[in-house]
Amino acid sequence: MHFAMTDEQRMIVETTRAFVETELYPHEAEIERTGHLPMELIRELQAKAMAAGLYAANMPEDVGGAGLDTLSWLLYEKELGRANYALHWTCVARPSNILLAGTPEQREKYLVPCMKGETWDCLAMTEPGAGSDLRGMSASARQDGTDWVLNGTKHFISHADIAGFTIAFMATGEEDTPRGRKKKITAFFVDKGTKGFTVREGYRNVAHRGYTNAILEFDDCRIPAENVLGEVHKGFEVAGKWLGATRLQVAATCLGRADRALAHALSWAAERRQFGQQIGKFQGIGFKLADMATELKAAELLTWEAGWKYDAGTVTEADMAMAKLKASEMLAMVADEAIQIHGGMGLMDELPLERIWRDARLERIWEGTSEIQRHIISREMLRPLGG
Amino acid sequence: MKVLVPVKRVIDYNVKVRVKTDGSGVDLANVKMSMNPFDEIAVEEAIRLKEAGTVSEIVAVSIGVKQAQETLRTALAMGADRAILIVAADDVHTDIEPLAVAKLLKAVIDAEDPGLVIAGKQAIDNDMNATGQMLAALTGWAQATFASELKVEGEHALVTREVDGGLQTIKVKMPAIVTVDLRLNEPRYASLPNIMKAKKKPLEEKTPADYGVDVTPRLEVLKTSEPPARAAGVKVGSVDELITKLKDEAGVL
């Protein structure tokens, strides 16, 4: 077992960090204030990200990505995660790995434009009535001749406003399972502009300003059979196989933001003087710093280990759930304490702390709530005992 | 034409430097180290010359501890073609002095026969600003220091130098030693695909003995100390009082 970064990993971190600090940080305040990421800025930063080879670097080399191993990819995600989410996700996009599951024609039509930065993908699963219980979804697709006809509503669909297409998960039947009757799910590519497919503005929310969510409505939306991604009724299998490490991606971006918050807290604790000394010398502040650093390191080790095991082929669902659970809860604690150490100044938008604190709230909810992660972990513990 | 670019591993410019308690130097244990920023500019300039078709090969050289291979990997990831590491010290606190570095570089030049050496004007750790000049003396080549612009025209290099109070443009016959200043260019990021490719580029490891050079220090460090802490300021009650103080006490008005 060894914990040293390779030369390549060190340089990936350095390049990504330098890019984030030089190119993304200067635009954060504006986006936090307006809640809007202008397309001209997106185009300018996309070009710079492409020149640095950072754009879509999560993808394999043969489709134009950087061909990073999972651990290197997570190190890159951590650095990107430092910045405002809309900025790094949109301008240094990481197209969903599920696009690799497509047929050669589907890759050409959907993956290639995403790699070139001409468009973005989005995934539509969540519904008003189906959050954690995805297989309880009601949006459906029925076959009509060789076509499929889609009906229903999806919401909380991230960045659907700029995406050129969506990958919609729809119920296409029911089956008996050991845990009762469940929906069969199929994944479909639906192009923006398809008749019967509407993208409506979503909700305003507390986290990730500038990063939009949308409501998607399907009203007798007719699409051809070639738009099925993977096999009919096997939508969750496709998602399970290709979306595997998204929980680790969330964990890694949390690490970056926590690291940034901790760095602010640390330098403030060393600079700020009250009652005649650095506030960091008061045990009440010093111990907070110690706890923050320890929690951050614990979350990092869980994330890196899960990433390493992912490539070794030995990762379990619980490994990834633990990393996501720990990193997102750690971030909430670190962001909160960083503000506490700063006092009133921590709440002002002069510093990135108030937004890191707001953004942290989302991380315990998306990609599976903390409760779902705990369910996954405990289920894996109890199963061998007949649980 | 082949270009030689010497690069030094130095304490990262963002790190708050701490003097060792015994005053023998700066504490470098577990401190972030990076390529000397002026050397990054030198690497960038070499790459631009290669992109312009003036240069065919870029060889990066580093002299120091074994860990300097990280610095060389960065140079390779930026775009250098191959690298030579001369391991001249075991302890990260050992600084190889400019004369020893210049002698080693002279030996590398004899073996590699480059048409141009592009180096940083100085390293940000000891600020010697000597290696390039010493190397010019040892090789008998022309030197152009503090470059803010570099153009290669046939047998000559046109170099704009940042001198006191302005700019000076000189024409030197190549082979030559050019040392670069801050405003020459803005170094690129080592792009992710190039980082992955750098792994496959050759990095040769040598020792000073291979070149018959003695790197024993000739300088003795007597003491290293922190800059004196700034004295506390005074608060003035009014603009008039400030002006009086600036006139009578500070003597700047």
UniProtKB/TrEMBL annotation, chain A:
Pfam families: Acyl-CoA_dh_1, Acyl-CoA_dh_M, Acyl-CoA_dh_N. One of its GO terms (molecular function) is acyl-CoA dehydrogenase activity. Residues 6-118 form the Acyl-CoA dehydrogenase/oxidase N-terminal domain. It comes from the Bacteria. Its cofactor is FAD. Keywords: FAD, Flavoprotein, Oxidoreductase. Residues 122-221 form the Acyl-CoA oxidase/dehydrogenase middle domain. Residues 234-382 form the Acyl-CoA dehydrogenase/oxidase C-terminal domain. Belongs to the acyl-CoA dehydrogenase family. This is Acyl-CoA dehydrogenase family protein.
UniProtKB/TrEMBL annotation, chain B:
Residues 23-215 form the Electron transfer flavoprotein alpha/beta-subunit N-terminal domain. Coiled coil: none annotated. One of its GO terms (biological process) is carboxylic acid catabolic process. Its cofactor is AMP. The keyword Electron transport applies. Gene3D superfamilies: HUPs. Pfam families: ETF. One of its GO terms (molecular function) is electron transfer activity. Keywords: Electron transport, Transport. It comes from the Bacteria. PROSITE patterns: ETF_BETA. Heterodimer of an alpha and a beta subunit. Belongs to the ETF beta-subunit/FixA family. The electron transfer flavoprotein serves as a specific electron acceptor for other dehydrogenases. It transfers the electrons to the main respiratory chain via ETF-ubiquinone oxidoreductase (ETF dehydrogenase). This is Electron transfer flavoprotein subunit beta. It comes from Rhabdonatronobacter sediminivivens. The lineage of its organism: Bacteria, Pseudomonadati, Pseudomonadota, Alphaproteobacteria, Rhodobacterales.
